[in-house]
Amino acid sequence: MSTEPASPSAPPLAVVSLLPAQRRQRIVDFLRRHGAVTLAQLEQALEVSLSTLRRDLDGLAAEGMIDRTHGGALLRQQGYTAFEPDSVASSELSPREKRAIGAAAAATLQPHQSVIFDSGSTVLEAARAAVQRGIPFTAVTNDLAIAQVLGGSSQVQVHVLGGHLRPGSQTLVGDALIEAARAIQADVLLCGAHAITDGVITETSPEVAAVKRALMRAAVCRRLLADASKFRPRTFMQVATLAEVEEIICDEALAIEEAERIRTLGRRLTLVPVPA
């Protein structure tokens, strides 16, 4: 047996000390994948201090590569409004927050309710948590990944709205789906959003926005599931206003001014703690 000490394994890429130029390039690459991020999301992804990240973002903004926002950054405005990350990139951001929000949303469901599950990574977490509860209910969705999760429970009757599959996603959209939604009157809708700005919910895709509007009309109670990073500059297509939903479920990092806006509208706001 060799007595030579084992060579230490290389540290993960995220914790390797990077030169400022390398670190800033990683930030730009991250934004190209996600469109917009918060400082907290960058801190988790790059394992860099907040003070260093602020300096990097300020430098990139001065160079005209990004736009600074309150608590984060986004692609230059001319590219951001129609930018849409793929489903894998979306699921990488704020995973702990999404799980906590999804669990809180699932906890509101009652046995034998009819529930519409909109597409999106946070709503997917709600579907997983709902299945774990083991209660019987009827589910409707336009997302194939969510349908598979819900179909794993013998307690859940799953209806998938037909349409055509959006490229690069597991979301069904289209006129046929919107028409089918007109025949539904569900108890609850669990809905996601790409961005929430000044009380307006927006999406990057006209097709996705049209489907979300149809699903909102198909439910008696509408619950919006959105982590704090979704409160950011608006994107291309308006879906609805916060006044059109009954409850917003978010994490405790939500800015005070956003929470005040929601309460002023008379909407119920549920802020959930996020486990470390």
Automatic annotation (TrEMBL):
| Name of the protein this chain belongs to | DeoR family transcriptional regulator
State the organism named in the record: Sphaerotilus hippei
Q: Does the keyword Transcription regulation apply?
A: yes
The HTH deoR-type domain sits at 20-75
What the entry lists under Pfam families is as follows: DeoRC, HTH_DeoR
Q: Which GO terms describe its molecular function?
A: DNA binding; DNA-binding transcription factor activity
Q: Which domain of life is it from?
A: Bacteria
Keyword tags: DNA-binding, Transcription, Transcription regulation
Query: What InterPro entries does the record tag this protein with?
Result: Carb_Metab_HTH_regulators, DeoR-like_C, DeoR_HTH, NagB/RpiA_transferase-like, Tscrpt_reg_HTH_DeoR_CS, WH-like_DNA-bd_sf, WH_DNA-bd_sf
Q: Where are the transmembrane segments?
A: none
